[in-house]
Design brief:
Blueprint (H helix, E strand, L loop, with lengths): L1 E6 L2 H15 L3 E6 L10 H6 L7 E2 L7 H16 L6 E5 L3 H12 L4 E4 L11 H10 L4 E4 L2 H9 L7 E3 L3 H9 L9 H6 L5 E4 L3 H4 L2 H9 L8 E4 L2 H10 L7 E4 L4 H10 L2 E4 L2 H10 L3 E3 L7 H5 L3 E3 L4 H9 L17 H9 L2 H19 L1
Parallel strand pairs: 1-2, 1-4, 2-3, 4-5, 5-6, 6-7, 8-9, 8-11, 9-10, 11-12, 12-13
Helix pairs in contact: 1-7, 1-16, 3-4, 4-5, 7-13, 12-13
Amino acid sequence: MKLVSIVGARPEFVQVAVLSRALRARHRETLVHTGQHYDAGMSGRFFAELEIEPAEIDLNVGSLPASVQTAEIVRRFSGALAQLDADAVIVRGDTNSTLGAAIVAKQHLLPLVHIEAGMRSYDRTAPEEINRLAVDHISDLCLTTDAAAAQRLRAEGVADEAIAVCGDVMYDLFLQVLPGAAAGLPPALAALTERPFVLLTLHRGENVDDRARLASILAGFESAPVPVVFPVHPRTAARLREFGIALPPGFVACEPLGYADMVALESRARTVFTDSGGVQREAYFAGVPCVTLRDATEWTNTIDAGWNRLAGASTGEIRRALLDPPAAPAARPALFGDGDAAQRIVTALESAKMSELVAFYRGVRAARRSA
């Protein structure tokens, strides 16, 4: 099968590192990088470190307001897809890249496969929630990380035959990288991991583009009893400069880290504080309690399991979690599969349902061309 895979942001690069190897062993995959994350520390480094083959097509969209960026992805991907002989398009997660590419796939009458389908925060003020809803309901095959996501899709009217529970390919990679992750840590960070510390990541527009909210979050870390390791996202760094906000004492700020370094820190931290969906899951993989700096999360399964809590931008909630760290629950259910999600996704793509979809859309395209 000839597959076109879309990537644009960090979690998607992490997924590709595992899934592309499994796909390319049996099928032809063309990787399209939208350029949504284009900074070397947020994109190029992941491709090099995880040994991902360079994308055959780079749309070079870059940083733009969300609506403009999505529109530009639609425009550029439409032109690229018209030149490809594709059987299906694969999108992942909930980014602008996901939404833009999904729209184009359906306009070009191609089967659309959505990996990480069925996630919901039920916060329709979050752009990612709109992306998830829209993409799930135009997809032909929805591949979920867990049974709860599959049930949400069924409740929303998605046909059972269009859903497959596959697990999370991010967990596949985490298990592969974890044993040797600490070997490459910079000496200063490696020394820091020998005593208690917390890890903070912060990048979402709702947090960092709002001066009051960003200041409230950082105020929660004033007088932190342990060092706060803070890999600074380029967007966050720009806002800190723009707003004139200084980091609290006790912060260990650094450039964005590669995947293995993040895994090493996540697995050794006392607590992880984050507004990232990917880091929430990675904290769960590592068995480390997480405090999510959002008012809602799509990864409600980690909250239900007791490993994650919402703090929003509340200075008081963040400070309480620092001074009285959340304890690790006794049980950690296998919420994200058993580390074989990539193979399960390949199996879903080789199903009779997928073969029928490819044949159906091929027939529709042929009929339209001859009309």
